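In the previous lecture we treated proteins in isolation. Real proteins rarely work alone, and many bind small molecules. This record shows how such a complex is specified: first the sequence, then the SMILES for zinc ion.
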Amino acid sequence: MLISRAQLARAKKLKLPKLSETEPNTGTVVLDVTAKFGVGIGKLFAPTWQMVMGVKSGEMSLAAYAARYRDIYLAARASGAVQRLFDLTRDCEELILLCFCSDGRFCHTLLLAAWLRQEPH
Ligand SMILES: [Zn+2]
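The predicted 3D structure, ligand included, written as tokens:
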């Protein structure tokens, strides 16, 4: 399965189906992993508001943000959320992680996609 990222606004125009946690998923599905709109399993992979605001204001460095986000990822993984995400997307061709960030800029979805690709699944 391909794991990629997209900007939320652009992805919405494509009207791709959201990852369902109750129905089978196939083809390409999108998962919102933003602090603002992330729900369900997506929320478990979202940064905190404090991190988002910290980076925006310049009070938090990107390195500190990445380290905090790694902790969030490891906590989600320890809770079984990574395995559940792979189970939910087992029959999917592509999982697209959504965030507000434009392409080519630092974004937690780039970290998340890279870490998910490294997981055995
Ligand atoms: Zn982002």
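Summary for your notes: The chain has one domain: 2-118. Strands lie at 2-7, 27-32, 92-99.
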